[in-house]
Amino acid sequence: KETKLISAMLSFVADSLLQPYPEYTSFSDIICAFHFAIQLKSVEVTRFKELVSVIPEILEKIDLKNTSGLPLDVTAVILSLNALDSVNKEQERWLISKLHRYHQVHHVIDTTIYSCEHESVVEKRPKWMAIQAVHMFIETVVMGHLKYFNKTVPYSNRVQMFMSRSGDFTKKSTLKKIELVLSQMYKEFSTTHPEDSEAFAQSCIRFYIEIISKLSMGKTAPEDELIEKLLDTVFTTGPDKEGLEIKDLTPFLECENDSVPVVRSFLLQLLLRNNYKSTREYITMYFEKAHSALSS
């Protein structure tokens, strides 16, 4: 079926080139045009073959006539998202296989889904973000605490269920919901396994930071409300148990404080590196307020 799909695509290219064009003065002109068209299509074929080799079940979903009108690689990417988004409650072997497939096709899907502006592809971008987030959670939290595998795998399923409803990490509302999910998980885990609660908290923090750096500020700019929220995390202070002013490391782990401001520095560098206009405006406003407070 894969061969037939590629052959049909190439036949369409050939047929279109055999139509009478005034600029064709000889058969060699047609041959040159054909090879040029094939060269342009080679990227599409390569991506399509890479996806099919890793996720062969998507072939069953593609019509031989490919009536969607989309390029083969784009059609394959859309179908691959459904395969990667599947939920399975089996044990470790399945999870490792899931991660392996994800890493093999990540580059192809990421490149294709952000290079095509067709409406049916653009609307799939939040779903692709959600799939990436689930795999980030598996790698940073589940695989980091394998001795609690039976507890953390249901956590990944919970993250996946949440992501199916909210996948756009450029929005403040999505990040706040992630914070809520992580907070609930941390409280549950620290209640049953207090001896490893600190290590689990660090894994959650790494996941949270990865979400921000790769998804919230990955391909598209986040909304201004999210930038302001992150800057609040960097600059806003609050009292600790002894009444001292400290910086909150994250909004979802009340026990963790960024006494050495590694995470806050990372967030600030990330925002400055992307050179968002709202970041510059917020920082200018912050220092103006600080200067005014010192002057008074």
Features:
296 residues, 2 strands, two-stranded antiparallel sheet, mainly alpha
Give your account of this protein's structure:
By secondary structure, the chain is mostly helical. It is built from 12 helices and 2 strands, in the order H-H-H-H-H-H-H-H-H-H-E-E-H-H. A two-stranded antiparallel ribbon has the order 1-2. Strand 1 (237-239) and strand 2 form a beta hairpin. Helix 6 packs antiparallel against helix 9 and helix 10 runs parallel beside helix 12 (277-295). The relative contact order is 0.06.
Map the helices and strands.
Layout: H1 2-17, H2 27-54, H3 72-84, H4 92-115, H5 119-122, H6 125-142, H7 149-163, H8 172-192, H9 197-216, H10 224-235, E1 237-239, E2 245-247, H11 262-274, H12 277-295
Antiparallel strand pairs: 1-2
Provide a short characterization of the protein structure.
The chain is 69% helix and 2% strand. The longest helix has 28 residues, at 27-54.
Which shape, going by the Cα principal axes?
A: flat
| Residue share in β-strands | under 5%
- Give the spatial strand order of the biggest sheet: 1-2
Helix proportion: 55-70%
Secondary structural class: mainly alpha
How would you sum up the major sheet? 2 strands, antiparallel
Average the pLDDT over all residues and give the rounded result.
Answer: 78
The first-to-last residue Cα distance is: 76 Å
Individual helix count: 12
Element string (H = helix, E = strand): HHHHHHHHHHEEHH
Low-pLDDT windows of residues = 238-251
